[in-house]
Structure to design on (295 residues):
């Protein structure tokens, strides 16, 4: 049997960046329905893609792919791997030699998009614009992730998940305000869970709360999907909560929420007026939490 025509997608960004590309990946799949789609990216993040979206994952960090990102010519062994691809979708900057190397192996067409928009286009819509027209409907613009219910912690009580970290200290709401928010949530009758990711490795957990740490991304998505509400900073975990369907309150300071806000049916944004996380009032966050809880 002849080998199927293949299509390559490259994305090597972080968790939130990958989630915002999922609608674009679905559009790419719809336009390449019979092709084998290979993601050159981060295997752990690829696990979040819904079934049928990606057929195979190659680790972009593997040593064997290093020549693709070098300005030198690609060796024959590496070039041979990419001759099976008829097309490629690359989330890569113009300075990356990746597109040039793929073109040299005969890949065409190649769609390349800078990872970040130049203007204030919402990031999901920006990525989708690379592969779909402006008439894409609301459902097509909503990231969705694979959920592993079996591997997720059991959520047996109405639960609020709080995540105090992010990729930058400047994007973190003061921890003491999260602690006071946790008290308010407990007073409302909810069990409180503290979510800790790699950015919070080794950080002390507040006393008296359950901590979720070390979960696979699909298991964390499954756990968050069972929560009544989630509150977190501008982070990948916040994008994951929104994409899992959890009612989400996302806190924004120095980054522009008009571009980077997570997208979901039950997402509320609380943005600082002065660009500092300290400028977000506790009452504003609590109001949005109560709104999502129906109170």
């Amino acid at each position: 049997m002849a080998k199927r025509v293949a299509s390559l997608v490259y994305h090597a960004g972080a968790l939130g960046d990958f989630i915002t590309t999922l609608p674009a990946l679905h559009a790419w799949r719809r336009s390449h329905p019979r092709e084998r789609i290979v993601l050159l990216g981060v295997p752990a993040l690829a696990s979040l893609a819904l079934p049928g979206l990606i057929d195979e994952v190659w680790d972009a960090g593997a040593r064997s792919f290093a020549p693709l990102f070098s300005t030198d010519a690609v060796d024959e062994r590496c070039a041979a791997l990419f001759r099976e691809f008829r097309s490629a979708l690359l989330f890569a900057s113009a300075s990356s030699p990746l597109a040039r190397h793929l073109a040299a192996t005969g890949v065409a067409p190649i769609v390349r998009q800078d990872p970040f928009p130049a203007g204030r286009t919402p990031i999901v819509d920006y990525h989708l614009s690379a592969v779909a027209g402006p008439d894409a409907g609301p459902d097509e613009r909503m990231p969705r992730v694979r959920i592993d219910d079996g591997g997720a912690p059991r959520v047996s009580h109405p639960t609020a998940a709080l995540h105090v970290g992010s990729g930058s200290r400047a994007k973190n709401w003061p921890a003491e305000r999260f602690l006071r928010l946790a008290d308010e949530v407990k007073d409302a009758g909810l069990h409180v869970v503290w979510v800790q990711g790699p950015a919070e490795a080794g950080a002390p957990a507040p006393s008296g709360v359950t901590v979720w740490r070390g979960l696979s991304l699909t298991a964390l998505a499954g756990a968050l999907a069972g929560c009544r509400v989630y509150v977190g900073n501008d982070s990948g975990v916040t994008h994951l909560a929104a994409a899992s369907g959890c009612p989400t309150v996302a806190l924004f300071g120095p980054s522009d929420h008009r571009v980077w806000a997570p997208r979901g049916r039950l997402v509320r944004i609380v943005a600082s007026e002065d660009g500092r996380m300290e400028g977000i009032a506790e009452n504003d966050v609590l109001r949005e939490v109560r709104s999502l809880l129906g109170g």
